[in-house]
Amino acid sequence: MAFDGITVAHLxxxxxxxxxxxxxxxxIQPEKDELYLTIKNNKESKILYMSASASLPxxxxxxxxxxxxxxxxxxxxxxxxxxxxxxxxxxxxxxxERVIEIAIDHRDELGDPCTRRLIxxxxxxxxxxxxxxxxxxxxxxxxxxxxxxxxxxEVLPGRxxxxxxxxxxxxxxxxxxxxxxENVLSGSGKLSQLIYKRITxxxxxxxxxxxxxxxxxxxxxxxxxxxxxxxxxxDVLMARFKAIAEGQFAAHVVLDEHKEPRxxxxxxxxxxxxxxxxxxxxxxxxxxxxxAERNTSTRLNEKSAxxxxxxxxxxxxxLKKAALQExxxxxxxxxxxxxxxxxxxxxxxxxxxxGASSYEAFNYYDNTHLTIPLDPTLTASENAQKYFxxxxxxxxxxxxxxxxxxxxxxxxxxxxxVLEAIAIAENDADLTAIRLELENSGWLKKKxxxxxxxxxxxxxxxxxxxxxxxxxxxxxxxxxxxELTFKYAxxxxxxxxxxxxxxxxxILKTEGKEVPDRAFEEAGALAAYYSKDSKxxxxxxxxxxxxxxxxxxxxxxxxxxxxxxxxxMMAVPTLEGLERIE
Length: 582
What we know:
The chain is elongated. The protein contains 12 helices and 23 strands. It is of the alpha+beta class. The longest helix is centred in the middle third of the chain and has 49 residues, at 283-331. It has helices spanning 5-19, 74-82, 177-184, 191-198, 204-213, 227-245, 283-331, 335-348, 380-424, 428-440, 478-488, 517-529, and strands at 23-31, 34-41, 44-51, 58-62, 87-92, 99-107, 113-121, 128-132, 138-141, 252-255, 261-265, 276-279, 358-363, 368-373, 462-465, 471-474, 494-498, 506-508, 540-546, 551-552, 561-562, 567-571, 579-581. Helix 7 packs antiparallel against helix 9 (380-424).
């Protein structure tokens, strides 16, 4: 189910029970649109995560601790001034809106008691986190919305706060049965659309579930159902709304056939009865299970968008450059023809008539006759020298182009490997390492960072344990590949890499032990899994060799090696049988 008013109602219930009476001890704003509040209550510390991301707005309790930036954003400083140290007195939800209001008692600059409200609006691209004073006036927000951005409501310091009502909807917590039967389920339209468009806080997914529970297809038009079916649907809706009003929630996550989260809900999901449902102790736990990984992925995609675009543009230029160089190199293949023309003219020049525009000569290299074009204003000897000059020029061009094309292919391989590294990056540190490589290689301008403004975190490789207990290390970018291969691995360790495609270096640590076949297969599968287009390839060819057989590419980019002794295997890209370790 979507993050709708029902989920927010369950969250409000949970947060109210866990945080009311607690003191806000710490506020961190690690991103431009997200906050972490640490609340101490009943001798326990709880962390409340909230995000006003346009693509994935969220709020839930979490155990994750984040590092605070050395310089806090302005909104974070304002919150620290006005609510840090304050006590939470109430957490409420207006109607069934996707809004949570946290009331906080604090003291103003003069030490007098005052009330502040921190309002979290979870409304897609309109999501926001707003601080309001006791007179319902906006003090500031994590996203300022001036009039030119919204004609419905300005979100600026000094403006009165209100929840915009873009359309008339009924309140499910106070609605009567007659209103649903006569006003909501009336007119024309599909059943599910009538429900979520006319009732506050109901998502399309929830509307479909209510219809399914009533034994109806949510996509059916209202005109296609009978009065009895309409009455039954009304009864289902009233029962659900009563359960919501009374706080009868049961958080759970539905898993698909691959054991991946398919949906979450605070109410039973009968339309997924054929799938496994995992009960959760809290709605926060359900949200973490369903959204945490997706949220991290979304954040990284947003942060890496500019880098990914720059690399893609550079790769397009390199590919065009390679195509042009390949064409020019192909044109140099005619150089030997010019050399033969010159040699034949030197051999038969005595028989060439003055002013002739061509001469048919016997080619003693392949025992054929060929016609040599001539400049009639030049002698046979001068024509021969002209052809020799063309031959030498094309020969020099071929040599130069061959070197340039080798460098262009190396650039192509590096940029493709960087795109793959961006795709498997797990955190900001990984992106920083990738950017460092691009800056050092000249693909990006060096980003000036003022000393003391950024706390750096080192990018770390991934580690797995094989079924037989061997440690497998995986590089997530070229700098890590270089470090793993030439610093972490010993000469007797094994190295794995997808043949002919960008991918991670995988090191199998032997610790002087004999390695069984299964460990080789799992290391190969790991190298296949972390290689380009692994999801589209049922099997991938893997090269593997002892670390002592590897050498760095002279003058090459980090992560690129050469080797002349290796084995090969076909591996299925999978992590089956492997345990991820820290």
